[in-house]
Write a structure and sequence with these properties.
The protein folds into two domains: 22-66; 68-132, no CATH class. It contains nine helices and no strands. The chain has helices at residues 9-19, 24-34, 43-50, 54-66, 69-77, 81-86, 89-96, 101-117, 122-128.
Length: 146
């Protein structure tokens, strides 16, 4: 118990921040709603309203628009805190660079399996992408679309 006394206020704040991490998909979808206002036409205008940089608006909205609906729906609908902590923007961003939807789903399934196993090998999985891997347990779309 004595080792707990060594935790600084800054370390505790970092820990609490990690627990409260926003779901990047839900945040991106909220930010996209800003563009529904007809007067908002640029990332700069949206950034001013949201209170972040233009680049940040582009990063997050781009992440959301480039992911397949099945991935977005799954991450927006899950309440599994371990899965939500695992799927950071940094882990999702490489998926947006894959043009083939089926390949995106395969890679997402590999990451999802790692998340559910509590694996910290996500960086290794990211490095292995590009190899021909079989389809794994990806959440099925209710619409049947990819």
């Amino acid at each position: 118990m004595a080792h707990f006394a060594r935790i600084t206020a800054r370390q505790w704040a970092q820990y609490e921040h990690g627990l409260k991490r926003d779901n990047p998909i839900l945040k991106g979808l909220r930010w996209l709603r800003v563009f529904e206002d007809e007067s908002v036409r640029t990332y700069a205008q949206a950034a001013e309203i949201i209170g972040v940089s233009r680049e940040r608006v582009y990063q997050l909205t781009s992440l959301v628009t480039k992911l397949p609906p099945r991935i977005k729906d799954f991450l927006a609908g899950t309440e599994d805190s371990a899965v939500l902590r695992f799927f950071t923007e940094r882990r999702l961003r490489p998926l947006t660079m894959v043009s083939d939807g089926e390949a995106q789903m395969t890679q997402f399934a590999e990451l999802l399996a790692a998340a559910k196993e509590g694996s910290s090998d996500a960086d290794e999985i990211l490095g292995q992408w590009g190899s021909d891997s079989g389809q794994t347990g990806v959440p099925a779309s209710s619409e049947g679309n990819h």
